[in-house]
Amino acid sequence: MDKKYYVYILLTENSTLYCGYTDNVEKRFAAHCSGHGAKYTRANKPLKVVYTKEFLTKSEAQKEEYRIKHLSREEKLKLIDKKM
């Protein structure tokens, strides 16, 4: 079985959005919730995963994460709405 990678967006308790990439969304979300995920999510507690997208390579996921991180909040919300 080939390893897959994911880009994800989290909604935080103060309504901000956090984007990252991982090979296991559930495990990474648990790490964020326990304060071991990222400096940003230690200060901005995550509520839920609101977006995921699957990739075949780590490089593709990293490129998409970079692209999403440079979107405006409005553009990120549109991306999330399209997925739901």
Layout: helices, strands, pairs:
Blueprint: E1 5-12, E2 17-22, H1 25-33, H2 39-43, E3 46-55, H3 58-69, H4 73-83
Antiparallel strand pairs: 1-2, 1-3
Protein described:
With 84 residues, this protein is α+β, with helices and mostly antiparallel strands. The chain has a single domain (5-83), classed as GIY-YIG endonuclease (3-Layer(aba) Sandwich). 44% of the residues lie in helices and 29% in strands. It contains 4 helices and 3 strands, in the order E-E-H-H-E-H-H. The chain has helices at residues 25-33, 39-43, 58-69, 73-83; strands spanning 5-12, 17-22, 46-55. Strands 2-1-3 form a 3-stranded antiparallel beta sheet, sandwiched between helices. Strand 1 (5-12) and strand 2 (17-22) form a beta hairpin. The model has no long low-confidence stretch (mean pLDDT 95).
Task: Name the features.
three-stranded antiparallel β-sheet; 84 residues; single chain; GIY-YIG endonuclease; 29% strand; alpha+beta
